[in-house]
Amino acid sequence: MRWSVEGYTFPILKILLEEGEEVIAEAGAMMLMKGVDVETIQIDSEDSPWYKAATEAIARKLFTGETIFHNKFRGPGELWLTSSLPGQIEYVKLVDDEWIIQDYSYLAHHGDIKIDLAWKGKRGIALGDLIWLKVKGEGGVWVSAYGELKWLEVKEGEEVIIDNMHFVAIPENIDWEVTKLNMKTFVLGGEGYAIKVRGPAKVLLQTRILPPLAKALARFMPSKWLSLAERFL
Predict the structure, then answer these.
(1) Is residue 210 part of a domain?
(2) Cα torsion through 129, 135, 140, 144, rounded to 10
(3) What is the pLDDT of residues 90-149, one digit of tens each?
(4) H/E element, 104
(5) In the chain, where does DSSP find H-type helix?
């Protein structure tokens, strides 16, 4: 399998599939395909009873917004995928390990990989976000995010504090905890909960986050009261 990412702000993931090679992508990610076969599937339905697979799929939809169905593309042929967000695409290689990724950052994967829900527990309650996605197995996952993507290497003995919304992907077994900044910083500085990471660790971060964009767009969205008033004008 050969692949490349072309473009920067609005990139395209181009994949050349050989005979028998497969890529599974989120619904709506396909931009172009040439020669490949496509099949709509429910993730993990082949490895679990239908009722268990359906329950897990619905839970992913409810808690993370991830689509219940995915598309499987089989070579030989060429496939172009795009992200729903303006920003970069990065590849996370899995070698019989587990990674936790931001729920809306998953784009596609290949290989023997299982997708599950990752419960944050008490840490998630503090963050106001209970669920991430967990990917595990052998292969690779393409992730996308809003803004640029940066790998951070935290060395042995080092400790960093990162705004929780800037996480994109982290190894499941790293040492991290939720920390709350002081009240003055929370009220005046716009910073609330953060995540403290202790090395050694490798973390994938995004430079932009969605809430400020959503707030900016909301200023230009008509309210329901304005919409009702317009009907009588």
Answers:
(1) no
(2) -10
(3) 999 999 899 988 878 999 999 999 988 766 545 444 444 556 788 999 999 999 988 999
(4) none
(5) 50-64, 122-127, 183-188, 210-218, 224-231
Q: Is residue 97 part of a domain?
A: yes
DSSP-derived 3-state class of residue 92:
strand
230: left (phi over 0), alpha (psi -120 to 50) or beta: alpha
Residue 42 pLDDT: 75
Distance between CA atoms of residues 24 and 6, nearest Å:
20
Q: Is residue 209 part of a domain?
A: no
Q: Say if residue 76 is preceded by a cis peptide, omega within 30 of 0.
A: yes
**Three-class SS state of 55:** helix
Q: Which residues contact 171 (CB under 8 A, 6 or more apart)?
A: 97, 98, 99, 100, 201, 202
Residue 92 structural domain: 2-148
| Number of structural domains the chain divides into | 1
The residue count of the chain comes to 233
Q: Whole-angstrom Cα distance, residue 19 to residue 11? A: 26
pLDDT-derived band at 173 (thresholds 50, 70, 90) equals confident
**pLDDT tens-digit map of 29-62:** 999 999 999 999 876 544 544 444 445 555 445 5
Nearest of 139, 144, 36 to residue 82 by alpha carbon: 144
Residue 220 burial class via C-beta count within 10 angstroms: exposed 0-12, middle 13-18, buried 19 and up: exposed
User: The domain spanning residue 69 has which CATH number?
Assistant: 3.60.160.10
Residue 32 counted as domain residue: yes
